[in-house]
Amino acid sequence: MHGFANPKRFLSLASLLTPIFLIGGLLVSAGALWWGLTQVSPDRLMGETVRILFLHVPAAWLGMGGWTAIALSSLVFLVWRHPLAALAARAAAVPGLVFTLICLITGSIWGRPTWGTWWVWDGRLTSMLVLAFLYVAYIALAQAAEREGVSARIPAIFGLLGAINIPIINRSVVWWNSLHQPPSITMGQSAIDAEFLVPLLIAVFGFSLLFAGVVLARMRALLADVQAEARLRRRAMEAV
């Protein structure tokens, strides 16, 4: 793992994987969405509104997955001082926020015909909204730390503390009396019919590839900014 912390090796690998992940993710996600939105039958209870799960569920998983990536990268940075760990955390924040917002928006669209309202202060919905606020706070904190030259340990500690919300989101429908349906997929079993489950899992895989490609692209851009700033500082020192 330490070998890939070398910026040159990382950039070489990321340059190869980024287009593969992005193009593959777009193709797989588009195919899964086409399958789910046009080919599966309406659900017996939810009717046509069930089709939103092919976007809503992957977005929810990747919203939580994005913060999990921030927490793990922050841990690596704090413990092992991995050079690229802080950049990885920052790179995962924006796509994680985007997927969290998609989850909230599609959930509200689904909730209007199902619950009769756009929003309820349900445990699952509220904890996902808190996750969106955590993302915004982390992005602002990381940008401020970079702008002011403050140690990256501060946003890293925040990234770890914010991970407390992830198990709360996951178990909210179990811990509280929730309008949100209980977990449909658990370890080793699924309550979802295969007609819906297969395109759903393909959509999750496709969006995961897309997420990974965006994170790698953002890491390359952030690393390029760091290297450019370092070159400017060296030139300024030499000029003095």
From TrEMBL:
Give every Cytochrome c assembly protein domain span: 19-180
UniProt key word Cell inner membrane: yes
UniProt cross-references to InterPro entries, sorted A to Z: Cyt_c_assembly, Cyt_c_biogenesis_CcmC, Cyt_c_biogenesis_CcsA/CcmC
User: What keywords tag this UniProt record?
Assistant: Cell inner membrane, Cell membrane, Cytochrome c-type biogenesis, Membrane, Transmembrane, Transmembrane helix, Transport
Subcellular location(s): the record lists: Cell inner membrane; Membrane
Give the main localization category.
Answer: membrane
Q: Which domain of life is it from?
A: Bacteria
Name the membrane topology term: Multi-pass membrane protein
Q: Which residues cross the membrane?
A: 12-37, 57-80, 92-111, 123-142, 154-176, 196-217
Keyword Cell inner membrane attributed: yes
Q: What does this protein do?
A: Required for the export of heme to the periplasm for the biogenesis of c-type cytochromes.
For this chain, the family text in UniProt reads:
Belongs to the CcmC/CycZ/HelC family.
PANTHER family from the entry?
CYTOCHROME B_B6 PROTEIN-RELATED, HEME EXPORTER PROTEIN C
Name-wise, this protein is: Heme exporter protein C
The scientific name of the source species is Qipengyuania citrea
Q: Which gene encodes it?
A: ccmC
